[in-house]
Amino acid sequence: MNIYVLMKKTFDTEEKIAVNNGKIEDDGAEFIINPYDEYAMEEAIKQREEHGGEVTVVTVGNEDSEKQLRTALAMGADKAVLINIEEDVEETDQFTTVKILEAFFDDKDVDLILAGNVAIDQASGQVGPRLAERLNIPYVTTITDLQIKGETVEIERDVEGDIEKVETTLPLLVTCQQGLNEPRYPSLPGIMKAKKKPLEELELDDLDLEEEDVEPKTKTIDVFLPPEKEAGRVLEGELDDQVKELVSLLNKESKVI
Amino acid sequence: MDFDLTKEQEMTQKMVRTFAEEVIGPRAIEIDKEAKFPEDIFKEMGKLGLLGIPFPEAYGGSGGDTLAYALAVEEIGRVCGSTGLSYAAAVSLGASPIYYFGTEEQKQTYLTPLATGEALGSFGLTEPNAGSDAGGTKTTATLQNDEYVINGEKCFITNASYAKTIIVTAVTGKDQKGKNIISAIIVPTDTDGVKIKNEYDKMGVRGSDTAEIVLEDVRVPRENLLGDPEKGFKQFLYTLDGGRISIAALALGIAQGSLDKALKYAKERKQFGQSISSFQSIQFKLADMAMEVELARNIVWKAAWLKDNNRAFTKESAFAKLYASETAFRTANEAIQIHGGYGYMREYEVERYLRDAKLLEIGEGTSEVQRMVIARQLGC
Ligand SMILES: Cc1cc2nc3c(=O)[nH]c(=O)nc-3n(C[C@H](O)[C@H](O)[C@H](O)COP(=O)(O)OP(=O)(O)OC[C@H]3O[C@@H](n4cnc5c(N)ncnc54)[C@H](O)[C@@H]3O)c2cc1C
Questions:
Q1: How far is CA A118 from CA A33, A121, A160, A224, in A?
Q2: pTM as predicted
Q3: Which residues belong to the signal peptide in this entry (chain A) (predicted)?
């Protein structure tokens, strides 16, 4: 089976994030593999262990993305591809990423593509489905179970806490949800072997794309942090008065009713 | 000069940090309280290749280096001193001597199961009457029909109750000057006459197994002699030099963990209407702690680097062990102070850090012994 994993480098949202001039500051941010992509990685390795084949992990990013790709190789991917757009592209959006990936997959023989359900930075959840549309293959999002039986694929997906069972066929794109598996830690021998595995680096040129072809279709106007949470207020006095005060505050001050 | 870690070292650090935070950290209080060796955690560490970091793949190792190993020890020490000590002792004392001095056959037979984490190893040097003065070993091993017959007693031996093999130091004869010749012998723990008891009730590193060993007419084949029969003493000095880097790394982990907890707490705790981190006296404590932690890290990494590059590292590993262990003790102590009364409570963990840190000023050569080693290196 030819298995591909779409992986994104994101900043760690559990670490401190600084915004400056409508942009998230790269300096000092911790970068990690998008956690949902770790489920995709783990599932890819599991499917390969069961059905044989090869796992290739692909990322659209910059030079620094090599770190996350090496980690994916250490987890057990066979090959990695870094599509480095640092030099060519200033602004990107989901269209950009899909366009680039579409060009990459153009000459590939694909059985299964796995992606994360969303990336925790932008949280659009668009790249997987849009890519599947462009490649003209079926896709299923937010999956929590994947069984491949010949050409048939049985899937369970998370629908707002309920489970939906879906049957489909290969080739296929899925996006992975928490609960699908427990991503493994890269083992020490895995880490040491990772440096000997192939990591191919491509640029727009190698995919026959021009800068104009991948220009974003959307424009980011501003990026800002949510307002700091203010201290709460404890109302005092008779219960009836408290209720009245609360209603009045909700009405006049926070204007929710 | 290059302070960057390699990609492999960085990945090792990150992986072990995640593993330590997710798997070991949540159990650290229980491990200490119940003084229970976390055997299952060591099984998992074995599967991840952590017990074989500095050994080649040919012997079941991971083919990493001393620095990667030191990073792993630091990350584990940051969440649990007990697990950290047993880990450092298993690799540096239980397995490393076989790698340094063993024959090809000994490596295949004895190192491989230790490197893969299938089994644990111990190093039995200390005796009731021979601690800092390791040359004062009383245990004897006499050759009889191609077998060593070993008699004696060892104390404070890490991991012995869970070990498959113990490297035992013993007097095997006298040289021309009439001085004792000390050799190291590999003793499988299931050999007749080996009795192991772990009845110590310890101040810290309570989840690390520490045992007493009685050897009574223990017979092992002559081939179990490790390395040069005449140079056993030199060999264990070399082993201890290497082991000191890992104890220093463990101390560094405890110091870093103490700093992390103190800093977080200082920012959250409010008194007199403000975070206690806005008080200069607390800030100065934190500044000193951060500085000492970083200085300890520099010397730990340097000692590891020297060893990896086949340079002399006796002096630097003693610097590292001495400075990092004293830093760990001071930092843990200040972390408690910053936590006030809460710091005195088990739940906040810094009191455990102090109890664990104290061992590091004693084991693998006391602070006094480190100063003696350094002074000797200075030519005194
Ligand atoms: C939890 C734990 C785990 C251990 N694990 C192991 C292990 O796995 N294997 C092993 O072989 N040993 C192990 N040890 C033993 C440890 O290495 C010894 O305890 C240590 O070397 C000190 O020896 P001692 O306890 O006999 O103290 P002593 O040597 O009696 O020292 C007592 C005091 O005198 C000082 N002193 C001694 N000689 C001098 C001198 N010449 N000049 C100045 N001061 C001096 C010491 O610094 C110390 O302060 C362990 C100990 C503990 C507590």
A1: 12, 9, 15, 20
A2: 0.91
A3: none
pLDDT at A255: 82
The answer to whether A159 and A142 have CB atoms below 8 angstroms apart is yes
Put simply, whether A41 touches B (Cβ < 8 Å) is no
- Domain total for chain A? 1
Inter-chain contact A187–B8, Cβ cutoff 8 Å?
Answer: no
pLDDT, tens only, A180-210:
999 999 999 999 999 999 999 999 999 999 9
Nearest residue of A to residue B60, measured between CA atoms: A189
In this prediction the ipTM stands at 0.86
Residue range of the domain that includes B140:
123-230
**CATH, residue B87:** 1.10.540.10
Regarding whether B51 and B96 lie in a shared domain, the answer is yes
- Which stretches of chain A drop beneath a pLDDT of 70? none
Q: Is the CB of B155 under 6 A from ligand 1?
A: no
Ligand 1 pocket check for B72: Cβ under 6 Å: no
CB of B236 sitting under 6 A from ligand 1: no
- Closest partner CB to A191 (pick from B15, B19, B52): B15
For residue A192, give the nearest of B18, B47, B63 by CB distance.
B63
Do B335 and B365 sit in the same domain of this protein? yes
When pLDDT is averaged across residues B304-327 and rounded to a whole number, the result is: 98
How many domains does chain B fold into?
3
Burial code of B348-367, b = ≥16 C-beta within 10 A, e = fewer? bbbbbbbbbbbbbbebbbeb
DSSP state of B130: B
Give the Cα separation of B349 and B367 in Å (integer).
Answer: 25
